[in-house]
Each structure stands twice: as structure tokens, then as C-alpha cells.
Fold:
Amino acid sequence: MEMQHSPSSLEIGMVSSSHEKPNRSQRIRNKSSQFEDPFLSEHEPRLIYINDPNRTNDRYEFTGNEIRTSKYTFITFLPKNLFIQFHRLAYVYFLVIAALNQLPPLAVFGRTASLFPLLFVLFVTAIKDGYEDWRRHRSDRNENNREALVLQHGDFRSKKWKNICAGEVVKIHANETMPCDMVLLGTSDPNGIAYIQTMNLDGESNLKTRYARQETTSMIYDNAYSGLIKCEQPNRNIYEFTATMELNSQRVPLGQSNIVLRGCQLKNTEWIIGVVVYAGQETKAMLNSTISPSKSSNLESYMNRETLWLSAFLLITCSVVATGMGVWLFKNSKNLDALPYYRRKYFTFGRENRKDFKFYGIALEIFFSFLSSVIIFQIMIPISLYITMELVRVGQSYFMIGDTRMYDSSSGSRFQCRSLNINEDLGQIRYIFSDKTGTLTQNKMEFQQASIYGKNYGSSLQFLDLSSRSLTRQCLSLSHFAESLRQSGRKPKVNVDVALMALLNQLLIGDERLAAHDFFLTLAACNTVIPVSTESSHDLTNEVDDTGAIDYQGESPDEQALVTAASAYGYTLAERTTGHIVIDVLGERLRLDVLGLHEFDSVRKRMSVVVRFPDNNVKVLVKGADTSMLSILKVEIGDGVYDSLHVKIREATENHLSAYSSEGLRTLVIGSKNLTDAEFSEWQERYEEASTSMHERSAKLRQAAGLVECNLTLLGATAIEDKLQDGVPEAIESLRQAGIKVWVLTGDKQETAISIGLSCRLLTQTMHSIIINGSSEVECRRLLAEAKAKFGIKSADFGRDSQGTEDLYHGDIFKLRPSNGHLSESAVQNFELTGVIAGDKSEYNEKVTNFDGTELALIIDGSSLVYILEKDLESELFDLATSCKVVICCRVAPLQKAGIVDLIKSRTSDMTLAIGDGANDVSMIQMADVGVGICGQEGRQAVMASDFAMGQFRFLKRLLLVHGHWNYQRIAYMILYNFYRNAVFVLMLFWYILYTAYSATLALTDWSSVFYSLIYTSVPTVVVGILDKNLSHNTLLCYPRLYEAGLRNEGYNLTLFWITMLDTLWQSLVLFYVPFFTYNISTMDIWSMGSLWTIAVVIIVNIHLAMDIQRWVLITHLAVWGSIAATFLCMVLIDSIPIFPNYGTIYNMAASRTYWLSVCLIIVLGLLPRFLCKVVYQTFWPSDIQIAREAELFKKLPQQLGSRPASDIS
Structure:
């Protein structure tokens, strides 16, 4: 969908048509777009009459299918664009200045010259905005004029997208794009299955399955389309859809699997037919196309603070000038006509001779003097700085994107800069909040081990090459099994356990064999994976022949790994429809009728499917997280012997789960239950009622699931390996050395997270852990207090904390423990658990001293965070977490991830970065100061919500330590330099005004004042801001601690600002007084003096910049010295225009030896103090960066850093 790939897609939500008349659907859409409710109420559904668009749109005027992503029209462009631009207060400020300069009493500069800077900025921005909007118009026009087949007069005929409306029936062929949101009525597949690709919607490349209800297939063959759909009002939620269809007096439930959304493409399906329910701006794609939260950089906030200081200084200087003017006028009020600076009458030739000058009185003259001073000193507030920062950030982003060392060849993804406002923040990150799965790990799941009936399988894994029809010697006797494996078309290379294969080859007799049978049936059936025949992808019937090759399509890598594993062990998922599934069990086909499916959700944390076997036996197959599954297992059997065996199986399974987790494996528990007729009838009634409900359908489905997801028989557990990405341990180690704290926020269980933390060097064996696993607010409060007391962590409210400690140690002796009352052995074996093993107060006092300087690690689970992330406990967690070197949060929900980020962001000024790869990381990414998305296996939703995107976690090391350091140093210096550059010019004018009776007289021409910021000194600033670097990337990567310069604000702080202002004051005095005393007794006119000042100030500020440049390249030389040459050239051109009062000035001055000597003297005297201070400071108090730079220049770095790379990306 072309729209989604254009820049306009980011702004769709902000520019929905405002010219259409407001109607009911639009008002409701505005409400629903705020996520207040997925649908309004059961009594206000949207009514869609199938194949009757007139009746559908009769009651309410639904929006058409025409979209508009552009901001402007030809008529509204100018006023609307100017309105948007003047949202910047700096532009308003300069507009006021330019307007004041148009008034005769305040006309300090020429009226045209005063408008030029603002008009130039507005014009350039308008051209850029206009070009971008023209591209949006072109994209919209192409999108709206595309054609689709619409049922018209009994036949499908082409119709433009923009003319399609709700209620019409549309036919889409393979590889075509959906023009609107449609409910499926039928497909080319006899079972009503369609495959779609949602990359244009959510960025995910894997195919999704959608189903047409079996009740609607007759419409397709009879060509009789009728019925009524009651659906929810338009909303942004692309993962839910609630509707019912009334068809032949039958009420059919519709859900998310029955709707295809605008922008999706039809794949592996010949055709589909659907009815339009949402069109145009009301489609979910358009409602989701909004701008991500805007972020501003940390340095920019500091810059605004300094701008306030400069504004105050501007008011002071203007007040001094106005006060001086008032005093001067009062002293000379009687002889103003005779004084050279101020006359009440004009003494000139022409019509103005002897006419009265407009004298407004002393009070008004003081006021006008103040305003005139504001106009003269206006560049004290640097308008050019905003433009310069934008240009520099664009240049920096260009080089970051072009850095080949951040290109991921495995996925073909390059680095992306999705936000240009916060490049410099990359150099000041203190906290990194990272997801685990897909971020630290590869998210490529491999089935490793299984616990079945209390026995562990996986230690005897053998590698089998099924494509060569050869098995290991142990399996040669299983010839028929090997043949079935070969014929079923599994992937050619798998890992299987020989002992488990032998068990599965036995007759289906005995509890252990039956448990293994149900175990693999659950793996094959309890999922949403679809088997795809790779040999017949264009005409897919979803039924795989015996000799066909199978590829599994699924939204979850975990599910695909489990289904592939089941297939490797002889349980091949061969066919799936909405009503049944077919599993090839060791060469024999088993058809299971699907009576209901409860998909995984974050509340239940499990998934179940109710199936009927050929013998009419009904069974529920369930898989889920251990925390949610172990609590719903069967407790009492009745038979003492069997009950004892069941307890042993459960204990063995729990031990296996702990062992798997300690190895860093992802675990799931498998269970099943035979349903009685009464249980099935009760569930079926509740399930059908919930499925057709238009109100709180999800909650009702959870309640229905609870009827069958109970008293389960434990079958076993699975262990899936998710390997670490390459370079993760080294990256984390470097980031920690750089002074960055890395926190891991994951949904995995505690032992798995600890194991991964150890393997990626986040945790070390010498660390002391603090484990918080509370099951209530009281327990969490106690655990936090114990931990703080144990390690002597002081609270912000120390008095209250000490009182809590006193109360805590009067009573029972507590231990820090999980909610089940004990710590797992695996955690103790792999990680030294010394967190708050309680004792008396004397023991506590001893241990406080013993733990001084000890590195702490905090491990906390999501259940505890439910109680802790309240206002009264947040501060306790903050005190504890910030005292720890490492924090790992386990079993956390997406909103809890955002809450942890906000915990740090709202209580400190430290910069935060969140990095993740999935949709569950979006809230965390948007909450952090900097959000980084990983282009991983879980789609691109995290990338779409991020500020920066990359292919691997290891690139974060280079992004922060190299590009972050460079960007921060460049932008920080650029801001200071811009303040200096403008302030030295203003102060030079200020000293001159003090010697002109505080009048608004200027020695510089109007154009020289205007060109100073725009031409004379702007280009070097941009070039240095993009290309300069104090250290090579090799040095920065070898010595990560150099990154701490940004954490300490060494590049920009208030002290540096005031030191710069003192240097500015000195240089301005030199600039003014050297020519003043040199030509004090000469007859030089003010234009000649102004010419000298213009040349001198341009040269001194450019040499000032040259003294600080760390890396000289050809373009840097051209920018710095070319700017000086350009200044001379412009002055020659301006002084060559006869109508200007400074005509010929430069020619006379350039011939004077005194002129050039004065310029040289100004440069030496102005820059000498700065030079001496730099020499002394860098000699006796060198910074880490200076030491590393000297070592780099003098080749004193380690041998591996000596060679300069062929291409050193800036």
C-alpha cells in the first residue's frame, strides 16, 4: 500500500478531513480513537446491510473510501503553513522585531533588510513543507484512483477505490491490496481460509490466516448476497473486532479472524469476497496512522534555559541604552538643535531642509529608544541556531544511516533515524531498559527438551537428516516411523530424542504412552499455526498430500517451534480449518473437530482448544505459562496410589522447569482434560453466548474458558531455546563500563531471566542479589524495607525509613523469598543469593558495613510490581533500584514496562533509553527519552514507534559510544559557539552606542548586520557540527569510559556558558576599543569604522572556531577560510553600489596599512586569553578526552587501534 510507505503516513491521524460536514460516525470515531472503549455500547452498533449500500448509509452518512493525508490545499497552504510555522515562539519574536522596524520612529535598519532573515526562513520552510505535501497529494491521488471489483447489478465490475462505500460487496484477487476493511464472506478455498500479509499495517512479514464463516459460503455459490452485520464503531484496535451477523434468522459471531483490513495484501489465495464495514478515514489503518509522541532533546531544554538568561541580558542592555538616552536628553533638552547627535530640525538640502524633526517628548523618546535597542540587539536571541541545529541533525543522521558497521546482513536491515530531534541525547544515556526475547536473544526458537510424565527427554538429542532417508542406528528398527517422517515432508533437519521416539513407537497402551500421545497432540492442535504446502502455494487448499512439503505459517515463533517439534516426532499438523484439524499421527490421519478455541491473552497466560475425537470423546487441550498452569491442575484424584504418582510427576515436572529455566530456556506447561457431557454442555452454552456478545466479549470468553481450564491432568512441559544474539555480552559489558545502567524487563520467568543475565554478562557471580517476590502490598512493603535495611540504603525520607526499620525488626524473623516460600535451587547454584537473609538488629548493623561498595542486583517480578507501582511504594522501589548495579524485572506486562521507565524518568534528570522488538515494547519505547526498535521476528511495531531502529542489539554499543559521543560533543559545542558568535556581535554594537549619545546610530550597514548570521559565519558552524570529532571510533570503542563525559555534562553546562560569556565580553571590548583608540584622532567616517568592525568580527569568530576544531578535512578548510573570503567579497559588492552610503569604503580602507594592522591586533589580543587558558588547563588539568586524544595523536594507543580504517564514518 503506497500510502503507508510515504512520509504522509505519519500524519494521517492529524489531518483527517475537516471540510466534510460533521456526522455521527465522525464524532464517534473521534472518541474511539482515544482508546476510551473498543466499542461504545451494545445498544449502538454499526449496522451494515450486505450488498445494500443505500440502506446502510441511509440512517447515518458514513464516510466514503476517499482518503486525504495531505495537510494543505492550494487555497489553505499559505495561511495554514504560516500559522504552523509561527507556533515557534522565536519566529513570533522576530516577526514583532521586523514589524517594529517598519515604524518610522523605530526604523533602525532598512525595512527590506529587517524582513529578509525572517522571510528567508519562512520561505525555505514553506518550500520544504509544500514539496512534502505535494508528495502526499500525489500519493493520495494514486491511492484513491486505484480500482477494485465491486458487485454491481449482479456482476463484479471495476470501481475506483474512492467511490466504494460501506455495505458494498468487493472481490479481491491474489496479490491485490484491500481497499477498505471488509468482513469475509467467502474465499477460493473450500474451507473459507484466506492468507493475508499485514506488512503495510503492522510491519509483520509473516502470513496471517483469516476465515470466512461456513454460514456465508452459500452466498458465493448462489450469488445471493444478503444479511445484516452489527459491528462495533470504528476504532484503532487492529487486533480485535467485535460483531455479529444475522443471516437467515441465525446469529453468527464475528471476530478478528473474520475481517481483513485496508492495506493488507492477499497471498496464496486465488480470491476472496467480502462486505465493506469501514471505509476511508474510518478504517483501522487510517485511524492508526498518527504521529508518535514528539520528543525534545536534553540539550535543547538547557539551551532554552540559557536563552532566558540571554533574554534577560538583552532587556538589561536595552534598559541601559534607554536610561542613558533619557539622561542625555534631559541634560541637553535646551540645545538639542545645536548638538551633532540630535536635532529638532533637519539641516539638509532638498524638501526636508529646516523642517521640524518629530520630537515625541522625553518619555516617548526613552520608550522608542528601548524598542530601537531591541531591534539592534535582536540577534542576541539566535534565530539561526534553530535552522543550524536542524541542518546539523540531518547531516549527523545521514552518516549514522550510512555506517556500514551498523548494517545487519542477516536480516538486510540498515540503521534508521526515525526522529531528528534527539541525536545528541544518544551521548547522555544513563539507563537502558531492554526487552529480552528478540532483543538480547534471536527470537528464533528451537525445541530442545521436554518433560513428559515426569521424565526428562532431550539429553540424548540426535541429529537426524530426514531428507536422506537415513536415521541413526538406534532408530533403524523403527522403519515405518522413519518412512512416515520422510513422507510427511517435514523440514529436512531436526533434533530428536531417540528414547522419546522409541516411546512414541510403542502401542497406545499405558499411562506414560497415553500422556506422550496427548502431549504431542496438544503441541500440534493447540495453536493458530497453518500448514502451507510449498509445492502448491498458488492454489492452496490447506490440505497437505502425503508427499507434499510443509511449511508452517504462524504469528508466534514459539508456536511454530512447537508444531515443528511435534511434526519431527511424528505428529504432523496437516490441515486446519475453522471447524476441524487433521493431524498425521505416525502415518495415520486423525481428524479432530474444533468445537472452540480460547486464544492466549495476557490475563490468563494460556491457550486452550476444545476438540471432539472420532469416538465422540470431547477433550480440552491446554498450554500456558507455569505460573498460570500449575494452579489449575487436578489436586485430588481419590485413588491413593494414583494420587501419589501424580504428586511425584508434578514435583518432577517442576524440578525440570527449574532446570530448564536455569539454562535460559523458555518453558510452557502442557495439560489436558476429558470433558463430561454436562461440562461440555455448560461450556458450549457460555461459549456461544460470549462469542455472539457485542459487549465485553473478551471478558465473557475468559469466563467461559475458566469452565474447562480447571482440574487439568498434567502432561508435561516444553523447553525452547532462544539463543543470545551475537555480540550481546560484549556490548553489555562495554555499556556498563561506560557508566550506563542496563535493566532487563521481560515476560519470562525469574530463573530464565537470571540465566540469560549471567550468560550476557549483565549479572556476575560476585554480585549480591535482592529478590522481591511479593504476593501482597504488605509483603512487598516489608521486602523492600528489609532490603534497604540490609544494605544500608537510605531513603529520601530517612526519618520515616528508619522508623520503619525499627518496627520491622521487633518481631518475627523474615526471609526474602518468592511467594511460594522458597528459592529455587537453580538460582542458588547459578547466582549468589545473599539478599536480606534476616537476623537481629546487631547482625543488620554488622552487615551494613560489610556490604559497603558491593555491587547489588535487584530481581523483581510482575506480581510484586502490581502492588509496588503505587505512589506510596514507588519511592521505596526507586531508592532500592537506583542503588543496584543491575535490575531485572520478570513476568512484567507492557504497561508495567512503561511504569518502570517512568519511575526513573519522573524522579531523575538522567536520560533513559528503551530498546525492544515487539508490540509489547511500544509503550516502553514511547515512554523513554530515546526509543530504539529492533527489526526482529515479532514484526515492526516496535520499529514504527521508535526514534531509531537497528537490526541487532550489539549495534547499540556503537550507536551510543561512538555516534552518541560525537553527536553530543558537536551539538553542545555548536550551541555554545552560536551564543558566543551572536553575543560578541551585539556587545560590539552596544559599546558603540554608548559613544553615540545612546542613540540608535549604527556604523554597520543594514546588509552587513543581516548577512553576519546568515552568510558570514553560518556555514562553518554547520560543517563542524556534522564532521568534527574529537576521537576516532576505535578509541571510543576501546575505552568506553570516555562516554562518561556526556553523563557529566562536560560538553555543555552552566559553568561553560558563563565562561564563554566572559570570553565574549573580552573579545567584544577588544573588537570595539582597538579601532576606537587607533582611529581616535583621525577623520574616519562611521562607515569605514563599521567596515573594519565587520571584517574583524568575522575573522575573530572563525579563528575562534578554528582553534577548537579537532578534525580538519578539506570541506572544513573550505568552510572556515571560505567564509572569511566570502565576507570580503560581499563587502566589495555592497560597497560597489553607488546608492549605498558606504559606497567605495572598502577600497579606501584596504589600501591602508593601519587597517590590516588593526585587524591583526584585534585577533591576537582577542584570542590570546583563550589560547593561554586552554594551554594551562589542558597541561595541568587534562580531561579524559584530552588524554586519549594526545595518546591517539602520538600513536600511544594499543597496537590494534593504530591502523585507521579505510572509511571512517562520521
In short: DSSP finds 42 helices and 35 strands in the chain. The chain has a mean pLDDT of 78. Residues 164-288 form a domain with the Calcium-transporting ATPase, cytoplasmic transduction domain A fold (CATH 2.70.150.10).
